[in-house]
Each structure stands twice: as structure tokens, then as C-alpha cells.
Amino acid sequence: MQQRWPDRIWIVRHGESAGNVARDAAQAAGHTHIDIAGRDVDVPLSALGERQAAAVGRWFAEMPASERPDVVLTSPYRRAESTARLIREAGGVADPLLDFVADERLREKEFGILDRLTREGITQLHPEQAELRQLLGKFYHRPPGGESWCDVILRLRSALDTVSLHYGGRRVLVVGHQVVVLCLRYLIEGLTEDEILAIDREGDVANCGVTEYAFDPRQGSSGKLVLQRYNVVAPLRQAGAPVTAEPDATGAAR
């Protein structure tokens, strides 16, 4: 039987972005809005985020070429694509000429009318949504024009089907966002709502934190992906790059 899953999958959240910095400043000042010009898709990495991405790239580069990623899938958002590019430039992939596959299904969760609002902003400007989110929980709450976690999971389920169809036996690097990392864990491990939300409550996914799965043919009737590490920041610490774990600029209602 042909192997359905990659030999290994790494899921990496993008490096710190200018949006992360702006969000922290807005929250600290008690503002209702996060000060970002332009679209969220175009928010760049901060200087620190670039250092973090290069650090992860050097960590991958320490592996033999035969063990580094040979497929790179990335969110089309600028901060994710830049992280993938810097990983490649640091020698972190099997082939320095390796192209990326930008997949819109890996994009950030969409927040609709709550976009760019701080927690204070949501409470002041959309108290009915704050109340509804409290009632439904973040897994099922869908703000007008936005997505619930279930909506993100639906598109990621399709993305995983593509991975299993095209990349069996390969080594796949996925570069995305905080909610993407968590929702992929939900899908790959077959978690429940309570289980994934408990993991979420333990703390934010670090910028450039590494989550890794390895294929084990002994698991189940046809093998499965088994978690090797979650949200590991050792590559950053080894390179002297500060660890950050801020939600994205749009993430007050994450």
C-alpha cells in the first residue's frame, strides 16, 4: 500500500510581525483600535521577526539535506511568505531553489467586523458580539463577515487532503498562523473541542515556534502522523533570537 502521509510535517508560525507590535501597543494604551495601515494580508515581519525566521532556518540547515523539508506550503500572507523565504535563505530546505506553494487555505482566521479591534474595542463597539462569543465559545462563534474556528478547520481539512494526495513520503514544511497551528493539531490528532481549547489556554503559539509530526507505519491499519514536538522555541534560543508569542493584530477575538 502506498504511504498516504508525508514522512514528516513541520508546522511553523510566522515570525513576529509589525501587526503583533501594533496590537501590543494598542492593548497597553487601552485603545479600541489597532493602528495598522493597509490590509492584514500585507503586514510585514518586524526586524525581530526576520531574526526569528532566519534562526529557524539555521536550525533546519543543521540537518542533513536528506532530512530537511523538500516541500514548502505557506499562507499567502506577507508575514508567512517572508518567514518561509528567510528559512530557505538560511539553508533550511533541501534545495535552495525550492519553490513555495502559497495556499490560501492556510491564511489567517478572518475576523469580519471585529477586525483590528482590541478586546476593549470589541466590548465597547460590539458588546453583543462579546456576549455571543462568551455564550458560544471561540470554537463556534462566527463574527459577522468573519470565521469561527470551525470554518478554519473546514478549509484546513481540505488542505490536509491535498497534502495526503500529493506529498506522501515527502518532508513538508507548513508556514502559517497561530490558529492554523492549533486547528491542524485538532485535525491531525483527532482532538475534541475541549482538548484543543485546553491546549490553547496553556499559552499562545510562539512566533516561529516549531510543531513537528513523524509518520509511524505501526499506528493503525495504514499508519498515522505522531506528534514529536509542539511549539518548540529551542531554535530561537540557540540563535539568541528573543522569543515572542503575541496574537496577531487581528487576534483580540481569536
UniProtKB/TrEMBL annotation:
Record key words, sorted: Glycolysis, Isomerase, Plasmid
Active site: 14 (tele-phosphohistidine intermediate), 108 (proton donor/acceptor)
PROSITE patterns documented for this protein: PG_MUTASE
A Gene Ontology molecular function term of the record: phosphatase activity
Pfam families named among the record's database cross-references: His_Phos_1
Keyword Isomerase: yes
Name of the protein this chain belongs to: Phosphoglycerate mutase
